[in-house]
Amino acid sequence: MCIGIPMRIESVEGTRAVAVREMPDGTIDRQVLDMLIVGPQPAGTWVLAFHGAARRVLEATEARQIDDALAALALALDGGEAAAPALDALFADLVDREPQLPEHLRQS
After folding, report:
1. Which domains does the chain have, with CATH numbers?
2. Which has the least CB within 10 A, 3, 35, 66, 107?
3. SS3 of 8, please?
4. Contact, 91 vs 66, CB < 8 A?
5. 46 φ, ψ to 5°?
6. What CA–CA distances, in Å, run from 64 to 4, 8, 58, 101?
7. What is the 3-state secondary structure (H, E, C) of 15-59?
8. pLDDT digits (tens, 9 = 90+) for 18-59
9. Measuring CA to CA, how many Å separate 44 from each of 27, 71, 87?
10. What is the mean pLDDT of the chain?
11. Rounded CA gap, 69 and 35, in Å?
């Protein structure tokens, strides 16, 4: 399975950008990304990075939600039942939300 990672653009030079991501352990992941798919973006922009390329532009809120989901995945893999309370906090946008059917499946 392949997973895109949210990264924040630090600087841009032509079709390449230096992007950073603070890891849960406090270290900094710094990569040079190919920006051809998303086009030129200003410093501070969040992108979804996959295989060394920015695949799409993200809002800061969406980048945080993806990071939270990745943290929840790591907790679930490591923590078992002890991780359950932390999982709710990492999926705060989904807790107490009723699933909605897509429009084409709803009854008229």
Report:
1. 5-90 (2.30.30.140)
2. 107
3. strand
4. no
5. -90, 135
6. 13, 11, 10, 25
7. CEEEEEEECCCCCEEEEEEECCCCCCCCCCCEEEEECCEEEEEEC
8. 999 988 777 888 999 999 999 999 999 999 999 999 999 999
9. 19, 22, 28
10. 86
11. 25
pTM of the entire predicted model: 0.74
How big is the chain, counted in residues? 108
Q: Give the CA count within 13 Å in the CB-facing half-sphere of 39.
A: 0
Q: In angstroms, rounded to a whole number, what is the distance separating the alpha carbons of residues 101 and 79? A: 32
Residues 91, 83 contacting (CB under 8 angstroms): no
Q: How many CB atoms lie within 10 A of CB 71?
A: 15
Residue type present at position 68 = D
